[in-house]
Amino acid sequence: RALAVPGRAFFWLVSLLLSSLIWFIAVKASDPRDELLQKGLLIFGVMFSVLLQEAFRFLYYKLLRKAIEGLVALSEDGCSPISIQQMAYVAGVGFGLMSGAFSMINLLADSLGPGTVGIHGDSQLYFLTSAFMTMVLIFLHTFWGILFFHGCEHRRWWEIAAVVVMHLAVSGSTFCNPLYVGSLVPSYVLMAAAATWAYLLSGGSAQNLRRFLLCK
Amino acid sequence: MITFMNNSDSEEEPCNERTSLMSAESPPVPSYQDGLQASEAGGAQAHRKRRTGSSRSPNNIADGDMSSLGVPVRETTSENEEEELTLKYGAKHVIMLFVPVTLCMIVVVATIKSVRFYTEKNGQLIYTPFSEDTPSVGQRLLNSVLNTIIMISVIVVMTVFLVLLYKYRCYKFIHGWLILSSLMLLFLFTYIYLGEVLKTYNVAMDYPTLFLVIWNFGAVGMICIHWKGPLQLQQAYLIMISALMALVFIKYLPEWSAWVILGAISIYDLMAVLCPKGPLRMLVETAQERNEPIFPALIYSSAMMWTVGMAKPDTAARGSTQQTWDAAEDGRENHRSPLHADPQRSETRSSGPTRPITSFEELEEEERGVKLGLGDFIFYSVLVGKAAATASGDWNTTLACFVAILIGLCLTLLLLAVFKKALPALPISITFGLIFYFSTDNLVRPFMDTLASHQLYI
To answer: Residue A64: which residues within 8 A CB-CB, separation 6 or more?
Structure first.
C-alpha cells in the first residue's frame, strides 16, 4: 500500500515535467518582452498542467486497476488484499504530497535565510498564504483522488468532469493572488464540498459522524 | 565476494575499489523471492533462498493439515500461497529497502547542504586526472569522458582482480583487504567528517574526546560489520559508511565527470551482471559452484548476515550456506518475534548446521531479507547529493531525483520478481535519476519559479 505513494509522486512528476516542457517551448518560441503574452502563456501553462495532471491521475487509475486485478487473480479466495478505495486514498495523498512538496519546499528553504517578506511592496502575508494554499491543495488532491477513482469505478463521467472542473477552478482562482480573498476562500469552500462528497462516497453518513464524535 | 575490493593505501584508493566492488556486487540485489524459483541464477543468497523455498513446498505438503483435499490441491494451494506470499513479501522487501536508501540519501543531502567542505573543490582523485577548468565546452566534455574511461577501467581491473582472487581461493588476502579498507573508512573518513561537521557548527572538541569517540565508533563498527552485532546497528553502520563514501565522491569528482561516470557505471553494471562473460556473473557462478556465501561485510541486508566463519562444509541435501542463511533468517525472525526465546537466538548464532531441520519449519511463514550492494547505496546517494549540491533549483531537483531513484528501485525489484535472477540495481534508477535531474533542472525549475513568483498553484 505504501508503494502507491512514491508511484503516485512519480506520475505527478512526469505530468509536471511534460507540462513544463510545453511551457518552456512556448516561452522560448515567443517574445520575452511581451508581458501580456508571457502572462497569457503562463495561464495556458497552468491550465495545461492541470489537465495533464488529471490525465495522469486517470493513467494511474488504470495501472492500479490492473495491479489489483492481478492481485485478485493470485489470491486464493478471490478477494484482493487492498480495496480500490484505499488505493484511491493513497493515490490522492501521494499526488497531494508531491504537489505540496514541490510548491512549498523552496519557500521553506528560503524562509530559513535572511530577508524581509514584502519589502518591495509585495504582500507581507506571502508565506502564510502560501502555506494555507498548499495545505488546501494537498487536501483537495486527496479528496479528488477518491472522487476520481470512484467516478472511474462506477463509470460516472460527471464525477470525473466535476473533479477536473474543480481543479481548474482552484488553479484559476489563484490567478487572483495577491488578492487572497479571491483565491483562498473559494478554495476552502471547494475543499469542504469535496470533503463532504468524498466522505459520503466512502460510505460515511451524518450518523457515522455523530457516532464518531460522541465516541460511541 | 565482490565486496572486498577495498584496499586501503591511500584515501582515494578505497574509494575506487569500493566503488568497483559495490557496483560489482549489485547482482546480489536478489532474492527476496521466497519460494518460487527453480533457476540457478542470482547470488549465493538467491541460491540459498531458493533452496529454502524449494524445501518449503515439501514442508507445506508435509505439514499437512492445510486442506482436506488431495495432495495436488495442496500443492497448487501452496504454490498460490507462495506466489502471493512472494508478492507480499516482495512489496515488504521493497519497503525494507526504501528505508535504508532514503536514510542514506537524507544523510548525504543534509551534509551537503550544511557542511561547506563537501562542496568545495579541493583537488581531484588520481583516477580523474583531467581537470575540467578548461574554457571551451568541447574540451571540458572530452576531459570528462577521458576521466570516465580511466575510472571505469580501474573499476573493471579491480573487479577482474577480485574474481581472480576468489577463483584461486586467496581468501586470506581478500579478508585482509576487506578489513583494511573498512578500517580506513571507519576511522579516517569518520575523523575527517566529524572534523568538518564540528568546524561548520563551531563546536570545540578536544583531542582526547575526539579520540575516544572515534575509537569507539570505529571499533564497534568493525565488530558489527565483520563479526557479530545487532542487526540494526550493523545496518546503521553500513548506511553510514555508504554515506561517507558517497560524500567523498561528491567532493572529489568534478562536475561533468560525475554525471558521465554515473551513466557509464550503470552501463557497466548492466553488462557485468548480464553478459555471460561478465566478471560479476562469473563471480556469482563460482560462488554458487562452491556453495559458499559471498563475503557479507559490504552488502546491506535486511536480514542477519554472518561472516565467513559461519559457513561450514556442506551436509547432505542443502549447503551449509543455506543452513547458515536459515539460521540467520531464523535468528532474524527471532529478533522480531518475541515468542522465540533468546537462547535459541544465540544458538543460531553459534552453530549453523546443528539446526537445519527445525529452521525449515520455522521458515514457513517467515520473511526473507533483501540484499542490496553497498555500491548501489553509494551511487544513489552520489546522484542525489550532486543534485543537491549543484542544482540551482535546489530542493525541487533533489526531491525529483529522490523520487526517481525510489521508483527505479521499485521497478528493479519488480523485474527481479519476474525474472528471478540476479539483476543490476543501478541502471534503471540511475537512468531515471539522470533524466529527472536534467529535465527538472532545466525545464521544471523556470516554470515553478515563475509560478511561485506569481503565487499561482497548479
So the answer is: A4, A84, A87, A91
